[in-house]
Amino acid sequence: MHDNKSYISSFCRIKNNHVTLNGDTVFSKEGTYSEFIKSAYKNLDIKYPKFFKMDRLSKLAFIAANVVLNHENVTPEQEENIAIVFSNKASSLDSDRTHQTSIQNKENYYPSPAVFVYTLPNICIGEISIKYKLYSENSFFIFDNFNAKHLLTYANNLLDTKKADKVLCGWVEYDGNNYDALLYLVGNKGKTEHNTTEINTLYNS
Amino acid sequence: MDALKQELKENLIEQLNLEDMSPEDIANDDMLFGDGLGLDSIDALELIVMLDKNYGIKLTDPKEGRAIFESINTMAAYISEHRTK
Fold it and tell me: Carrier domain: which residues (chain B) (predicted)?
């Protein structure tokens, strides 16, 4: 049983060439995913050169996290106890495929270390943690479908047990040409109640 | 040698995803790691792969990399002497 009420203070959605914050579009651009996400990075004035070295899944998670955390005035200079709980369906399959391609031919066998390091989905959590100096709990779950109940239970448990003051939660999916990110920040303040109905409403909107 | 240095700068930018940098931004004696271009340990591994893939040079002792990858000048000198392709 959840002890205290928790709330969603901000959420970011990235899909269909749009970046939205709390339902309002903050950036949009037609084109391929690579063109779109690079333009989003530049337009949102993030200034973090390591972004260009990230795989496609990490870029997606990184931009979505930036939008939420900046809106919540979270800065790398001020250490905050924010946990991260992400989920998706395809895990790191996009980078896994790229790595597989590089080792497919025994006559031309040159696996790229820069690709290999992203063959785990939770690396995207590491990228966000490094930028914002988040040293709290983190987990990445793989589900067949978006699982609001699990995200709710896990985040509330972190808050109830005082493992974290806030939790950045959500879904970050990149597979083929399909991408979708919904990240939201949960804490003890906010306008939207943190429950499965509200989480599913955000996801289905 | 100048052509090789230019080629190395272009490869570095492309393979290490040094976005917003052009070959003109990299001086031949700039430190590639530390305070120079700020490359990291994964970049170092990519450079080792690049030596093998592009020039047929296999570094068996990773410690060698420290001196070889100091700058474009040191890389070009090593490659000129040891390349097999």
Answer: 2-83
